[in-house]
Specification:
The complex is a heterodimer of chains A (about 140) and B (about 120). Chain A contains six helices and three strands. In chain A, helix 5 packs antiparallel against helix 6 (about 115-130). Chain A has a three-stranded mixed beta sheet. Helix content of chain A is about 45%, strand content about 10%. The model of chain A is unreliable at about 1-10 and about 10-40 (pLDDT under 50). The two termini of chain A are about 20 Å apart. Chain B is mostly helical. Chain B has five helices and no strands. Classes of the chains: A alpha+beta (about 140), B mainly alpha (about 120). The interface of A and B includes residues 102, 121, 124, 128 and 134 of A.
């Protein structure tokens, strides 16, 4: 079964393969985004800090990448900021990304906790204000 | 779009349905759903007041969320989000029945629903 990182890399490959040089084609683990790429989702969504906390890597569906690749840079920056902020909270178990008409962050928390949930929703509120995009932060519990 | 008064009437009707269910735990999921739809109509009443009856029609939930994000203060928006998510657990996720407790319901009622209901005061 593929790990989260493998799924992420495979998705990056599928969506952005036109950006990869011929020498990198083949194994998903060898994929490198070219220098013209202005963001690297693998780093943004699966950074070392997150994995050091033994938290499972994020799963990102292909349509979410397509959504990202059509955004203006300032909106990508706002998303990166939001993701970093969410990841900085020690109470966050995991964060996955889906796009089914609405860009969705699926954030798993260990338990119902008003204060913690509101910290997440506050990020959603600000992200929607900044980008004018209807994000859906779906808080899940194990 | 419905008038402010029509939305408030619908909101109150949904709120009274939660009382009708009372403490019957077999239908606690519907209490979460009714509480959310009551809150939603208080929110829509506020939108109708702000934008003016007849000038705007909310077509779907996405559009509603953008309007709420625009016109609500952050705390009220956060409360709407909590109510909406618990309603979603109740409607679509039977595996989350453990979240639909009286404790969580009362927390939503006293902290989140009250903020949405208070929007009706600003409609007068």
């Amino acid at each position: 079964m593929a790990t989260g990182v493998e799924i992420v890399l495979t998705n990056i490959y599928d969506v952005h393969k036109e950006r990869f040089s011929a020498s990198t084609l083949g194994s998903a683990s060898q994929i490198k985004l070219d220098s013209a790429t202005h963001f690297n989702p693998a780093i943004i969504f699966n950074d070392a800090y997150f994995t050091q906390r033994s938290i499972s890597s994020s799963i990102i569906n292909e349509d979410f990448y397509k959504f990202l690749s059509n955004l203006e840079q300032r909106n990508i920056d706002a998303i990166i900021l939001a993701v970093k902020k969410i990841k900085s909270y020690p109470f966050v178990n995991s964060i996955d990304f889906k796009y089914k008409g609405t860009p969705t962050f699926i954030i798993t928390l260990p338990e119902v906790n008003r204060g913690n949930e509101n910290k997440i929703y506050a990020i959603e509120y600000q992200l929607m204000k900044k980008t004018r995009i209807n994000f859906d932060f779906y808080i899940d519990f194990p | 779009m419905a008038t402010v008064e029509q939305h408030i009437s619908k909101a109150e009707n949904n709120e009274s349905f939660t009382s009708f269910i009372g403490n019957n735990h077999n239908y606690i999921d519907w209490k979460f759903v009714a509480l959310y739809y009551s809150a939603l109509h208080f929110g829509d009443a506020f939108i109708a007041k702000k934008l003016g009856y007849g000038r705007y029609r909310i077509e779907n939930h996405d559009e509603r969320r953008m309007l709420y994000n625009d016109l609500f203060d952050d705390e009220t928006f956060l409360s709407y989000e909590r109510l909406e998510k618990f309603s979603r657990y109740a409607r679509y996720h039977p595996e989350k029945i453990n979240l639909l407790t009286e404790k969580n319901y009362n927390d939503l009622l006293t902290n989140d629903f009250i903020k949405m209901k208070s929007l009706s005061q600003q409609c007068k």
